[in-house]
Design goal:
234 residues, alpha+beta, nine-stranded antiparallel sheet, 2 helices, 18% helix, binds zinc ion
């Protein structure tokens, strides 16, 4: 075989590999994006696509749903090369400040002094792995300009305030930290690991988060739920 032919074969192989990688990475979220666009434009045409705050999906799920709406993006979805989504995004289909967000599980709520749109709840005993501490992170509860929709019960600087499951935490918003980057009205919810010293790990890294599927009783892993609308009890 000539060197030139070998080179061509290697290049074709590399391109095929890259193509397969991109296909694997983006196919799930592309399918979900088209459903999401339809939901955001015409939420009333697909009431059966919604999940509801406070609902438990499956008898063994320790968490209740943290808000109302369409589950638009899943854990491990990819929005750009190398990105892996660390939580789930639930889109209320309403304007900002209207769709309630509730605690999925009891714990101790903290809102750091500079958090406009986020709270985090410490769960001392992971219900699926007793003895381990985990954290539940809720964000996007502010408008584009950073006006907060978090309940006045939890002002900035709140530290370790006990909340029951179902307690109103605030309302969905579209704050992203960048007024030029609208993200749609939704809640981002994730389960964050503890660093072993009693602090939550960096939520932006998927390796610091847990697949929420078993906690919420729904198939919320992007790689295993291609093309499905995810609803309670189906
Ligand atoms: Zn998200």
């Amino acid at each position: 075989m000539s060197k030139r032919l070998l080179f061509v074969i290697i290049v074709i192989g590399a391109l095929a590999g890259l193509g397969y990688y991109l296909y694997r990475s983006f196919r799930p979220s592309i399918g979900r994006t088209s459903n999401l666009m339809e939901w955001i434009r015409y939420p009333s045409t697909h009431p059966e696509w919604a999940v509801w705050a406070g609902t438990r999906c499956g008898a063994n799920a320790p968490f209740v749903m943290p808000t109302d709406g369409f589950i638009g993006y899943l854990w491990d979805d990819s929005f750009k090369i190398g990105h892996r989504h660390q939580g789930i995004d639930i889109f209320g289909g309403t304007d900002v400040g209207l769709t309630p967000v509730v605690a999925a599980y009891p714990g101790y709520l903290t809102r750091l002094p500079d958090w406009k749109s986020s709270v985090i709840v410490r769960v001392p005993n992971d219900p699926l792995q007793p003895g381990r501490q985990i954290w539940l992170y809720y964000t996007h509860m502010a408008d584009l300009a950073g006006n907060s929709f978090i309940s006045p019960d939890f002002p900035t600087g709140t530290y370790e305030k006990y909340v029951e499951a179902g307690r109103r935490l605030g309302y969905q918003g579209d704050y992203s930290g960048d007024p030029n980057n609208p993200v749609g009205v939704h809640l981002h919810f994730s389960i964050v690991l503890d660093d072993g010293q009693g602090n939550f790990r960096n939520e932006l890294e998927i390796r610091n988060t847990l697949d929420p599927s078993l906690y919420l009783g729904l198939p919320l892993n992007a790689k295993s739920s291609v093309g499905k609308v995810i609803v309670c009890g189906k």
